[in-house]
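Entry, Tuesday afternoon. Goal for today is a structural model of the target with 2-acetamido-2-deoxy-beta-D-glucopyranose bound, before we commit to ordering more compound. Inputs were pasted exactly as handed over by J.K., no edits. I checked the ligand SMILES twice against the vendor sheet because last time a stereocentre got dropped in transcription.
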Amino acid sequence: MHPSAAKFLLLIVAAASSFLSVASHGLPPRQLKRNASCLPHERDALLAFKENITSDSEGILSSWRRGRKDCCRWMGVTCSNQTGHVLQLDLSHRNLAGQISPSLLSLEHLEHLDLGGTFLSGHDGRFPEFLCSFKNLRYLGLSGLSFASRLPAQLGNLSTLEYLVLTEAYYLPSEVPPQLGNLSNLRHLGLASHDYLYTTDISWLVRLHQLEYLAMDGINLSTIDNWLHVVNMIPSLKSLSLSDCSLPRANQSLTHINLTKLEILELSWNYFRHPIASSWFWNITSIQYLGLSSTYLYGPFPDALGRMTSLSYLGFFENGNSATMAVDLKNLCELSYLWLDGSLSSGNITEFIEKLPQCSSSKLFCLSLNDNNMTGIMPQVMGHLPSLAVLSLCNNSISGSISPGLQNFTSLEELFLSSNHLSGQIPLLPRGLEILDVSMNFLSGHLHFGAPNIKVLILSSNKITGPIPEKFCELQYLHVLDLSNNSFAGELPVCSSMPSLRSLLLSNNEFSGKFPSLIQRLSNLTLLDLSWNKFYGTLPIWIGHLAKLRFLDLSHNMLYGSIPVSITHLRQLQLLNLSFNNISGSIPQSLSKLMAMTKTHTPGPTTTNGLYWYKGWVKNGFLDILSAVTKHQQHKYAEKSIFYIVGIDLSVNHLTGGIPDEMASLDGLRSLNLSRNWLRGNIPKNIGAMELVESVDFSWNSLSGEIPASLSDLTFLSVLDLSYNNLSGRIPSGRQLETVYDSNPTMYDGNNNLCGPPLQRNCSSGHSDPNHGNEKASGENSESLFFYFGLVSGFAVGLWGVLCALLFKKP
Ligand SMILES: *[C@@H]1O[C@H](CO)[C@@H](O)[C@H](O)[C@H]1NC(C)=O
Ligand SMILES: *[C@@H]1O[C@H](CO)[C@@H](O)[C@H](O)[C@H]1NC(C)=O
Ligand SMILES: *[C@@H]1O[C@H](CO)[C@@H](O)[C@H](O)[C@H]1NC(C)=O
Ligand SMILES: *[C@@H]1O[C@H](CO)[C@@H](O)[C@H](O)[C@H]1NC(C)=O
Ligand SMILES: *[C@@H]1O[C@H](CO)[C@@H](O)[C@H](O)[C@H]1NC(C)=O
Ligand SMILES: *[C@@H]1O[C@H](CO)[C@@H](O)[C@H](O)[C@H]1NC(C)=O
Ligand SMILES: *[C@@H]1O[C@H](CO)[C@@H](O)[C@H](O)[C@H]1NC(C)=O
Ligand SMILES: *[C@@H]1O[C@H](CO)[C@@H](O)[C@H](O)[C@H]1NC(C)=O
Ligand SMILES: *[C@@H]1O[C@H](CO)[C@@H](O)[C@H](O)[C@H]1NC(C)=O
Ligand SMILES: *[C@@H]1O[C@H](CO)[C@@H](O)[C@H](O)[C@H]1NC(C)=O
Ligand SMILES: *[C@@H]1O[C@H](CO)[C@@H](O)[C@H](O)[C@H]1NC(C)=O
Ligand SMILES: *[C@@H]1O[C@H](CO)[C@@H](O)[C@H](O)[C@H]1NC(C)=O
C-alpha cells in the first residue's frame, strides 16, 4: 500500500472507532473506602511488575513504592471498595518499556487490564500468554504493542472477556485463532492490523452473540466468499470495520438483512469495482457512518441513499471519477461530512448544492468535492447550509465569480477553491474565515481583507492587481501569505508587527521599492520569497536578525550593494538565493556559522511541518512551494520535500574577491552556484570536505590556479561546471570526475591552460601536479559564497487531506 494511503487508512480507522463511543473504556471508578485497603500479596505482585519495567520516562510508577502501603492509591491502579482487591490496571499510553511480569497473575480479581500504547512485551518479546489465564478479565487492551511471537489461541480461554483490543499490534504472521469464538461475552473485538494476521475461516464469529464492534481492517479476507453471510448472523453488530481486507465485492444479495443496529460501516480500500447501487447495505437506515473510499464503486448512487436519514458521514473519495450523484439528499438532516473527492465523473455544482439537506437545522459541516470534473457556476447563496465550516471544491471546472454574499457566510472557516475557472474580484471575506485558497483561477481586481482571524491566505496564480492594503497589518493571526504569480504592485505596507507570519511568498509580481522594512518586524518568519519583483536598493543589516529564517529567495530583483556579513548569523538558513541581482563586494567570511548548511545540523522534515500549511496534513504533501535551479534544472519543492533544499545561489551578480575557504565547512550543502560573477583566486583546496554536494557551478568567473584534487572525493557530485575561468594545470583524475565529465563535456571549456585527460590537450613539462603549488592560493582567498534556488511558486490542487484533520476537530 502507498504510505500515504496507509496513513490515511489509519485516520479512517481511528475516525470510525471514535465516531461513536461504542466501546466504553474502563470500569466506572470505584473509590476505596478506609476499611478496605490493598492486600499485601497484590501489592507485592505490583512491585514485582514494576521491577521488570526498564524505562518509565514520565515517572508514572514513582508512586508505586513499598513505603506507600495502600497500592489502591497507586497511579493506574483501581481496587474494589469493599474487598480491596485490585480490579483494574490501566497504564495505557504511558511511556513504559520492559517486560510484563507474570506476577500480575496474583491479581486474581483483575477485571480490566490496559497496557495499550506502551512499549511493553512478554518474556523475550513474546506474547505474554499467562494473560490468558485470568478468570475475571472483562477488558484486555494491548493495542500497538509488538510481539515476537504469534497471537496465541489461548486467548479463547478468557471466557469472561467483553473487550479485546489488539488494534495495530504487531506479531509474527499469525492466523486469527478460531478459539476467539469461545468468548461468548465478547462485545468488542478490535483486530485491525496490517499484514500480520490472516484467516481463512471466520465462521466462529457467529458464536459471538453479544458482539457490537468488530474491526478486522487490514486482514486479508479475499478467500472468504461468504463473509457477508457470516456477518449477517451477528445482529447485535453496531460497528463493522473491514477496510483494506481485499474483499472482492459488496454486491452479494441477502434474503434478509439482520444488521438493523448497524451504525458504522467502513469498507474503504477494498477493490469492488461494481455498480454502487448493487451493494448490499443501502437499505440499512440505521447507518450513521459509511466509508467507501478507494473501492472503485461506479455508476449512479441509488435513491435509497436519500432515505438513510441517520447518515452523518459519507466518505467516498478516490474512486476513479466514475460515479454520479443525482440523489436528493434533502432529508438527510444528520449529514455532517460529505467527501466525494476524485470520485464523480461529472456534475453541476449549482444543481449539486441545491440537493443538499434542507432541514431546519442542517448539520452539514464539511463538504469536499475536489478533483471531480464539476462544471457550473459558483453558487451564490448557500443559506440552507448554516453549519458549513469547510467547503472544498479544488480542481474542478467551476466558473463565475465568488458571490459578495460570501461575507455573510458566517459559519465558514475554511474555503478551498484552487484550480477552477473563477473570475471577478475576491469579495469581502466572512469574519470567521481562517483558511482561504483560491490559487490558480482567473481572479482579478484589487484585494480586500475582512477576515480578521485568517491564518492562511493563498491567492497565487491569479490576475490580482494593486497594492497590499494597509488593512493587512491587522491580520494578527496570519501564518501564511502567498500572493505569488499575480500582478500586485507598489510597496509593502509598514506594519507595526505581525507576530504569526511564518511564510511570505510574493514572487513573480511587480512589487517595487526598497527592501521592505515590514520584514524587519516579522520575527517568526521562516520562508521569505520576494523573487521576480522589482525591489531595489541594498540588503539591510537587520536581515541577520530574522533568527528563524530557513528559506530566503530574493533572486531576480534589482538589489545592489554587498551581502551583509550579518547574514551569516542565520543559523537556521538552508536556502540562500540572491541570484540575478546586482550584488557586488565579496562573499562574507565566517560562513561556518550557517549551521543549517552543515552536515550535523541539516534540518529534518519534522521541523518544516506546518511551514506552508497551517494545519498539518495536505493532499499528498506535494504542493509546490519553492522552485530552485540545481544541476542546471529547475526543480520544484513542496512542503514535504523542501527540507532537502540546502543550497546557495549567488549566480549572475557582480561579486568580486575570492571563494572563502570557509565555504568548504558547509558540508551539508547540496548545491552551490557562483556562476557569472567576477570572482578571482583559487578554488578552495579543501572543497572535498563538502561531502554531500551534488551540484557545483563556478562557471563564468575569473578563477585561476589548479583544480583541487579533493573535488574527486565528492561522491554525490553529479554536476560540476568550471567553464570560462582561468584555471590551469592538470585536471585531477578520479572516477567521480570522469562520470561528471561524461554527462557534461563542456564543464572545462574556456580554460585554455587546463590540460590532461579527459581533454585532448597534453600537459607540457611546465604543468605541475595538482597536489603541489597551491600554497599561494590558500592565504589569499577571501569572501565569496554560494547559492542555489530559483523560484516561482505554483500550487497544486485538491486538499482533501486538510479536511481529514477536521474529523477530529468537531467530533
Ligand atoms: C462502593 O461500591 C459500591 C458498589 O460496588 C457502590 O455502590 C458504592 O457507592 C461504593 N462506595 C464508594 C464510597 O465509592
Ligand atoms: C486454556 O484452556 C485449555 C482447555 O480449555 C487448557 O488446556 C489450557 O491449559 C488453558 N490455557 C491457559 C493458558 O489457561
Ligand atoms: C474453544 O474453541 C475451540 C475451537 O473453536 C473448540 O475446539 C474448543 O472446544 C473450545 N473450548 C471451549 C472450552 O469451549
Ligand atoms: C490476499 O490473499 C490472496 C489469496 O491468498 C492473495 O492472492 C492476495 O494477493 C492477497 N492480497 C493482498 C493485498 O495481500
Ligand atoms: C439472519 O439472516 C440469515 C439469512 O441471511 C438467516 O439465516 C438468519 O436466521 C438470520 N438471523 C440470525 C439471528 O442470524
Ligand atoms: C458483483 O461484482 C463483481 C465484480 O466485482 C461481478 O463480477 C459480479 O458479476 C457481480 N455480481 C452480481 C450479482 O452483481
Ligand atoms: C431495499 O429497498 C428496495 C426499495 O425499498 C427494495 O426494492 C429492495 O428489495 C430492498 N432490498 C433489500 C435487500 O431489502
Ligand atoms: C484533477 O482532477 C482530475 C479528475 O477530475 C484528476 O485526474 C487530476 O489528477 C487532478 N489533478 C490534480 C493536480 O490533482
Ligand atoms: C448548471 O445548472 C444550472 C441550474 O440548473 C444551469 O442554469 C446551468 O446552465 C448548469 N450549468 C452547466 C454548465 O451545465
Ligand atoms: C449581508 O447581510 C446583511 C444583513 O442581513 C445584508 O444587509 C447585506 O446586504 C448582506 N450582504 C451581502 C453582500 O449579501
Ligand atoms: C549594477 O551596479 C553597478 C555598480 O555597482 C552599476 O554601474 C550598474 O548600472 C548596475 N546595473 C543595474 C542593472 O542596476
Ligand atoms: C547556476 O545558475 C545559472 C544562472 O541562474 C544557471 O543558468 C545554471 O544552470 C546554474 N547551474 C547549475 C549547475 O544549476
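Helices lie at 3-19, 40-51, 227-231, 349-354, 735-743, 775-780, 800-809.
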